[in-house]
Amino acid sequence: MDIALWTAAGLLAAAYLFSGAGKILLPKEKVAAYRHGGWADDFRPGSLKAMGALEAAGALGLVLPALLGIAPVLVPLAAIGLMAVMAGAMAVHLRRGEPRLAAGNFVYFALLAFVAWGRLAAEPFTG
After folding, report:
1. Rg of the chain taking only CA atoms, in angstroms
2. Which of 3, 56, 109, 127 could in theory staple to 86 by disulfide, Cβ–Cβ 3.0 to 4.6 A?
3. How much of the chain is in helix, strand and coil states, percent to nearest 5?
């Protein structure tokens, strides 16, 4: 179970760090121009940057506390925070009539729920 949780957390961290960096570093027009990026037109540039910052912080929170041995309880909390981000993303896509994109967000949501559950109950970090 520990290997599965580390693998899921690591892959999620990489995905959210990449996604968050794109939202932080790229202008809104570039984000909106990506395939399936039309949702970005619904938000102000500052809101996109804030979303990116939340994703990047969550990505770091999925792995760094456990790797450094500093407050590893932050790992499931980061997963829960990113679940909230994905709930918002699902709502945006459903409102825009994009159920396939919402389904993709649900996959991330489910993986994050696995990490949160695993690190809170099934295989918490000790020590």
Report:
1. 15
2. 109
3. 85, 0, 15
